[in-house]
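Field: COMPLEX_INPUT
Field: COMPONENT_COUNT = two
Field: RESIDUE_TOTAL = 908
Field: MODE = joint
Values follow.
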Amino acid sequence: MTNIKQILTAGISALIISVSIPSAFASDTVNIYSYRQPELIAPLLEAFTNETGIEVKALYLGKGVLERIKAEGKNSPADVILTLDISRLVGLKEGGVTQSVVNTKIDANIPSQYRDSEGNWFGLTTRARVVFASRERVEQNIITYEELAEEKWKGRICTRSGQNAYNIALIASMIANIGEEETKTWLRKVKANLARSPAGNDRAQVKAVYSGECDIAIGNTYYAGKMRTNEENPEQKEWEASVKILFPNSEGRGTHVNLSGMAMAKYAPNPKNALALMEFLSSAKAQEIYAEQVYEYPIKAGTKISPIVESFGKIKPDNLALEEIAKNAAIASRMVDEVGFDN
Amino acid sequence: MRKEDKLSWWQALSGFRPSLLIDRLGLDRLSLVLIIIALLVAMPIFTLFVIALSGDFSSLSHLVKNVIPHASKTTFLLLFGIAFLTAIIGSLSAWLVSFFEFPFRKTLSIALMLPLAVPTYINAYAFVEFFGFTGPIQSLVRNIFGFTSSRDYWFFEIRSLGGAIIVLSLVLYPYVYLSMRAIFYLQGRKVIEAASLLGAGHGRIFTNILLPLARPALALGVILVLMEAINDIGAMEYLGVKTLTFSIYSVWLNQGDFAGAAQIALILLVIILALVIFERLARNKQVFSEKEASIKINGFQRVKLNGFAKWVALFASLTPVILGFGIPFFILGFFALRSLKTGFDASLINALFTSISLATIAAIITVMVALFLSYAIRIKNTKTIRTLVRLATLGYALPGTIIALGIFLPLARFDNFVDFYMRDWFGFSTGLLLTGSSITLIFAYVVRFMVIAEGTISAGFEKIPNTLDQASLCYGKSRFDTFFKILLPLMRPAIATAALLVFIDVLKELSATLMLRPFGLETLSIYIHDLASRGRIEQAGLASLIIMLAGLIPIIILMKTLQKS
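Field: COMPLEX_OUTPUT
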């Protein structure tokens, strides 16, 4: 009996040790906490390591990055934080987990409307939220967000949950552009036009257009690129081929864009390496890889756009200050509840 | 003194020292350890309380007006539907394989547990694929009738409340099945023989005798199912079903109000608490003899089914396996085959090893703690302690991310506290002692899945009459010996079941793992999530199959244990 217990105890201790090796503090590394899947940025990080010899450790955490860093406090291993949404970026700054970075190279690469004035966060790519319209059943090639509330779209629109960060940002941009009351009326009418209750991701909406369930879907452009090049699931190529991309409001204020971005953690243990990484991510080389891999819009002026992104059409981004979107995000989220958008 | 020296640390820790237990002082010490453990398990709930109270309740008034009416209706219907469906599937299949003999009965009695290994989000995905527009069923319908668009015909929509009830029930019913099988095995045989001697038909025996007798087991199974259903976010998000859990996330992440999110989480807890209390009250009214129930009849003969009845039984117990395991296996196997062409990912092996290590450690610790809690309650049954343990284990009903934060926040505070004083006094940093390693993660698993182990093991203890302990003590055996030499062997099936359930749940666990893991720790579920959230779940087919197969091993071990005893 005792022997078994001893073996068990030894075994458990060995197992615990084997899965708990904290090694985030080596000197020539940089640690990333990410809202974004590390595999998407893997080619970038590889290029960075090749160039600088600095090893990159990325931890994809999904929800709760902010709360975790806050709780870790001064002992947090995070150097750089990567996120996918402007509200999260601003949230990091407001949560007090970022530090100000003033660096002429980064500032030269990233236009001022896409970074925090105090250097607490920087955009890396922009992501346009557009309309995917059925090639078969939708004739028009011009559209506005406002138009989605019109009677003619009754039962023809598909979208994912209103509480999804991308939709929240879109609604927040509407609030900033046309006012809260107007937006609420608009949202209520869009809800009434939906072909089905919001469910699934952006791709599922395009699939619904393909299947005939709806005629237009709201989604981010890069999904078109991902579907078009999906070799593992070639059916998605057909879904994508059944829709055309319409950039809303391109004749007016421009299409709503969101931001993927980065920030340096307040207590970054390797600030030098963090800075090197941030410089690299904003550089022409990284921006090109980025755009090539994920079909988003690079942020550095003059970066070559991938042919697939070019095929989506010309974009005129809405020049609304991104902080305005972040500021209205909570109102937008409550509005989604108030009009019962997801019900 | 020498005898004391030989005792290993965990015996000392858990208070099983015979010398201590005999005198009154020892018993007090036992209560103390018991309370400390219960408080540790209850830590995330306490954290949530503190966080909830720190808020200004502004979200709450918004929620009461705009969210809660709809979300609680959805949540109620979801829970009701799932309770109903899992109770029927679980008890019917357990009844069939326990009391009747029909083709493939033995294989099916194992196979009925298979859906346990399918994570809910995977099943949601598989069902949407299988029954969706591009799936085999609808494609066939279109080919036969010549339809081209989904507007030409009506088809059941999986992305709906009804769909969610079906998708979740099909992978959660094994909780009911397992506890019903155990109770039928222990209790049913004698009564069924008596009843049939008196001329009762099988149907009447089932509804009038077996079901009422098995109600505690049924309730335990269903409550586990409901707790797992209510904490689910992955499958619900995918299926577009907006439960209260969904609004926890929107309040937290989109409205930036973590305190508000904690407040809704506590509402969830109240719902589950109400369920548990309701079940306890119902059970207290019920009288049945513990002593009689535990006597096993040897040489029990299953009723041999013939003709049509035999095929009905086969069909009825095969259907849940096909729907809950067959469909996801088919869909993921299809994708796995496809992705094999694009190459095998070496990090998958690594993730498999990590997952199995974590699941093994967590299962062992959870079962040990649960054994201690249940046994301590058995010998020192005070209301306060019982209530405390019940409360502590309710955390299972909360979404994993919320539980994870409830653990992470106090532990990180502890880490920083230790680090601060170590720097101050000794001049070196200890960093994030607990939260920087996977200890926190294992702790979270133990806390999250404690209710499964504790419920199963307590139910096992209830089957063993107290007179057995008393007899053993009368013969001069110590509590220690009574526990290890008499109770433990009898408890083997319950312990094995508890360990199995925790093991599989850890394999499937995603949200707490994602939130709490240290650098470099990848598990199978994270691997799947990585691919799935990039919309490349096809590639995750292989990993999902591995989760399902890894879940098979303990299921087979469990069956062997159950058959031996």
